[in-house]
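User: Second chain of the day. Same drill as before.
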Amino acid sequence: MSLTLSDMQYPMMRTFVDGGAKFFMTEETARTFDQRPFRSMLRRGWVSYRPERGFYLTSEGYDAWNQYHSRSIFRVNPNLPLTSYFDPKAYGLEDLRQRTTPRRRPTKKQNIHVMKTRRVA
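Assistant: Same format as last time:
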């Protein structure tokens, strides 16, 4: 699952997370915030409302927050070449793509025997 918090959702969600697990936001307080991230968080189920208490961050909201902060940015194989948009020669560097990419041995051609099938009338 891919998760992206917008530049407006992040501070809105952070308000709930910083408030703690038992934090409830009153309707009056919720009115002071931009309603676009608030609405999207309600639609995604990250925030819910309890009468008499207010808005709170759901378990799905905490999961989304934790997933956003625990996403790894490291490559599985760091020996693979850099992105094709980076040209090492432009910076006077050795072309690492040639050095780190293993060379493949040429494979031997194998003869393939094709058998003809009988046609059934």
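The chain has a mean pLDDT of 82.

User: Great, on to the next one.
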